[in-house]
Design brief:
By secondary structure, the protein is of the alpha/beta class. It has 17 helices and 28 strands.
């Protein structure tokens, strides 16, 4: 008698290595080129790379940095580091060489693996940081091919669960690593936090789920969704560069059930002609999760009308904790980001640290169970973000009578463009070093596609006249020091920036006119 799907789900064993032992030919992922990789093949590569890292002398608690495009190689290297107890730092490959070098040094990286697509920045970063163990996917001068790391696909001698070390910036502009204590758990076991996280969205192990990944795997949530999906027996379909129609075609071809998206992708999907949108079968979708940036209400409504109540939103932090709201709930509570996850606490506190009443805006604080974290090499930032055992991102919001969280504002300066957090202080810190700049303010202004784009307002030095030539000079200067996504899209000039006698910049006076009549949340 054949088992039902529910019975099979209950009796199957999760965990990458367990699945590989029981079902080695089961498809783990489909790479961007359309080639399938089985659980058996993925484990073989993860074991070889893991043994290779230990042969280099890496031990649990050490850090590795990967600067790779979406690929099976990235996933295999991630699990190699995970099973050997290492901290895994996924670097945004838009960063410049010096920016990557900073992360290599700050994370105390013992090994660095990069894609040949980013060879110039990778070489510069490796040289500036002095990291000795350098590996590449593709050819990079001075790097050893990743395929040559390790000589055996037997399990590494030392096996203990590692974890991601995720870099998040603060108001100082310099990224800080969120470093959680390693658990010492068996890497063959699916962490309860992982299966519990998926259960928040109603996603069960196995259950014929297929996950599609259309965003770069250096994003915190994107990497988590792919890693957990594989651990709980879901096939993962990787996209290299996201394209709206290609995503629809892949959803139909692979019968995709879930994904993690950002509102910019919704906007691009809705921009497709109606005949293009309607020709693809998306009936397999069960839960399409979005976060990372505020979603305009009209965009959310249109996606719910098209895809149905499968569109689910969450609000969370790299540091831990969050809220979730289903499509059906959102239609009852439009604009809300939901209620607290199970085992998570979300509250709103006043400046005095006391809890505020229903409907009164204040700073949003969170806690995830008994978990803890610290900002690597930044005790001060760790302490400043906390009240007791709760932490805040600086977001402003309120809770309604049913416990639903509504965000009124976010960190006063942070820009979210296309789902990517951009911190103006870092950009200001570079531009102000230009000899023709006396003062500068950087902030986000509305953009129909990306949500926000970066604007710089410059106070030139005495005797310097604003001009298009000056703008080009400043942008060229910035390009040498900042990743492309951090570059201002427009520059304006003022005689003097609005500062108080103590030097505090009234940035809202510059920014607010652009947001009048719009929800800057």
């Amino acid at each position: 008698m054949a088992m039902t799907v529910e019975q099979k789900t209950e009796t199957r064993t999760g965990g990458l290595w367990n699945i590989a032992a029981e079902e080695p030919d089961r498809i783990a992922l489909v790479d961007p080129g359309g080639e399938s990789r089985t659980y058996g093949q993925l484990v073989s590569e993860a074991n070889r790379y893991g043994r290779g890292l230990q042969e280099l002398g890496l031990r649990p608690g050490d850090s590795v940095v990967m600067m790779l495009h979406n690929s099976a190689d990235l996933v295999a290297f991630y699990f190699a580091a995970y099973q050997t107890g290492l901290y895994i730092v996924a670097v945004n490959w838009h960063l410049t060489g010096p920016e990557v070098a900073y992360i290599l040094k700050d994370s105390d990286a013992k090994a660095f693996v990069a894609s040949s697509r980013f060879s110039a920045a990778a070489r510069q970063a490796a040289d500036e940081s002095g990291v000795a163990n350098r590996y590449s996917v593709g050819e990079i001068d001075g790097f050893t091919p990743l395929r040559d790391l390790g000589t055996s696909d037997e399990r590494p001698e030392i096996r203990t669960a590692g974890g991601p070390m995720l870099y998040t910036s603060g108001t100082t502009g310099k990224p800080k690593g969120v470093r959680r204590p390693l658990t010492g758990a068996d890497p063959d076991q699916v962490p309860l936090a992982s299966s519990g996280f998926f259960s928040i969205f109603g996603i069960r192990p196995f259950d014929d789920h297929v996950h599609i990944c259309g965003s770069p795997l250096y994003h915190t949530a994107v990497l988590n969704f792919v890693a957990i999906s594989i651990q709980v027996g879901h096939k993962v379909v990787l996209m290299d560069r996201w394209d709206p129609e290609e995503m629809l075609a892949l959803i139909e071809r692979h019968r995709v059930t879930h994904s993690h998206m950002v509102p910019t992708q919704f906007h691009r999907l809705l921009a497709l002609p109606e005949d293009v949108r309607s020709k693809y079968d998306v009936s397999s979708l069960r839960v399409m999760i979005h976060g990372a940036a505020p979603c305009p209400k009209e965009v959310k409504r249109r996606m719910l009308h098209w895809w149905g109540p499968v569109v689910t939103e969450y609000y969370a932090a790299t540091e831990g904790g969050g809220t979730v709201i289903s499509g059906e709930e959102w239609l009852r509570k439009p604009g809300s980001v939901g209620t607290a996850w199970p085992n998570s606490v979300v509250t709103v506190l006043g400046d005095d640290g006391n809890e505020l009443p229903v409907g009164e805006p204040g700073q949003v604080y969170m806690r995830m169970g008994g978990s803890s974290f610290e900002y690597h090499h930044d005790k001060k930032k760790t302490e400043e973000s906390r009240v007791g055992d709760m932490f805040t991102l600086g977001d402003i919001g309120y809770l309604d009578e049913d416990g639903y969280l509504f965000l009124c504002d976010r960190k006063s300066d942070m820009i979210i463009s296309g789902g990517v957090n951009i911190y103006p202080a870092e950009i200001e810190g570079e531009l102000v070093t230009h000899p023709k700049v006396a003062d500068v303010a950087v902030f986000g202004v509305p953009h129909v596609d990306w949500g926000e784009e970066i604007k710089a307002v410059v106070q030139p030095e005495v005797g310097i006249e604003p001009s298009e030539a000056l703008t080009e000079e400043l942008l060229a200067f910035a390009r040498e020091r900042l990743a492309k996504f951090k570059l201002p899209r427009s520059v304006e000039y003022v005689d003097e920036l609005p500062r108080d006698p103590n030097g505090k910049l009234y940035k809202r006076k510059l920014r607010d006119p652009y947001w009048q009549g719009r929800a800057n949340i």
